[in-house]
Amino acid sequence: MSREPGAARAGTVSASRRLGYPAVGRAPVGSSLYHGTVNKTRSRPTARAGLPAAAAALLLLLASCAPAAQAPLPAAASRLDTTARIVYHRMAIGFLETGAYTTNVLVDVQLPAGARWTLEAYPRDGSSYRLRITSTQVPGIAWEVSPGGVRRVPVPR
User: Exposed e or buried b for every residue in 74-107, given b needs 16+ CB within 10 A?
Assistant: First the structure.
């Protein structure tokens, strides 16, 4: 039993037929799907129509992920930021080696002049921690280090 392409089974009505389109698959003249002229370059809708909108949406999405524009850090603050990241990675390596967070891995960390770290939260089981790194050379800014990462925070007054 062979059928011609596009032929419906006996007793059924195709969707295009229910919508009033002719059986040959062409839209009736005057409908929004019929252009009335033959233009080989634009005879069918293309994906380019939504390209500017998609590009704009992608640009906005990427811009929302970018860090906020901030003034560059002074040299002392940059050294503290690097130290905070070193502390974070040492704590992570200590956790991988021992199965718990421990400050023993921070014994030989080189702190910049005037800097200190303070352990603010540390449960007995060593499952988490929160350190704060401050410096007398960078007033008003502290770095908070936790298993979630490093973030710069204002110093509470």
Answer: eebbebbbebbebbbebbeebbeeeeebebebbe
